[in-house]
Amino acid sequence: MTLILGIESSCDETAAAVVRDGTNVLSNIVASQDELHQEYGGVVPEIASRAHLERILPVIQKAVAQAGVNMQDIDCIAVGNRPGLIGSLLVGVAAAKALAWSLDKPLVAVDHVLAHLWAPMLSGAKAQFPALGIVVSGGHTSLLLLEDPSTARCIGKTIDDAAGEAFDKAASILEMGWPGGRLIDKAAQKGTATHRLPRPRLKNNAADFSFSGLKTALLYGVRGNPKRIDGETVFPRIASSLSTEEKNDWSASFQEAVVDTIIRGVKEALKNHSVKCIVAGGGVLANSRLREHLLSVAEEFHVQLHVPELSYCVDNAAMIAGLGWHLFSNTQFANLELTASPRGIAS
Length: 347
Known about the structure:
Elements: E1 3-8, E2 13-20, E3 24-32, H1 34-37, H2 45-67, E4 76-82, H3 86-103, E5 107-111, H4 112-116, E6 131-136, E7 141-148, E8 151-157, H5 163-173, H6 180-188, H7 212-223, E9 227-229, E10 232-234, H8 244-272, E11 277-281, H9 288-301, E12 304-306, H10 317-329
Parallel strand pairs: 1-4, 4-5, 6-11, 11-12
Antiparallel strand pairs: 1-2, 2-3, 6-7, 7-8, 9-10
């Protein structure tokens, strides 16, 4: 029996978890910062890092207590050290190194993106390799060819906005609030995709993604084509003039375009690479339409699909501890000179 304490602070969730043998989650504590960033319509890095400093120790203590163990029972400290907001990552890395040193426990460094692909394992999934990994979140939209849980090659990624970021911006354009992903999904379920929005295609790599043009098309569709008047950009309409039904239809249209773009990249990857299963993770995997389409693609290509439970889609430390267990089992240890990095395997 191996107990891993996982620590996650890559963006705006301060999280800690204790996981036994990679899949048995004894505790999973996540302190969200949504209320701190709401008025800005997105994550403010300086605010995020300061909030991590305030919350990291209480979150770790709560995770250990809820697991019914003490610090000396922990066999290894796993920390997400890449990729992410550098100020946020530094808080988690510093805490993990301090614990590893003071408890004389080994330390493992976990790639946050790859950890998302461990999330389905927390619910009993048994992935076979090679596998196609799909990470769709606020900061990442990536296709990875996985040799094993910690060895991957990026075969497709977004060249601009990530899908989750695009959903946030769409919700902002429609004046619906933040975070935008779940708001767009909820509205889309009541709407109809009546508006034809672009599905950007890239010449160099068909498995790559682009969402910035889609966001611009939504902006012009909702507010009309802008004009320059006295040196200022002026739109003929405002989003607040839309009815609820119109916002629902725009949400459904935007969501359909995003999902179609992701699915096209997934199909392209499956055509060009032989894999035994699809493993998906990330906050946008909570989107109901994306989950439906991924299941259809898996059936079309006759491969198994592994997706996380909704509670493990968001950034969490259980997935860090889970992949940390794999690294620990393969003696892939880090030393106390470990640093944080804004870039990772999918960057």
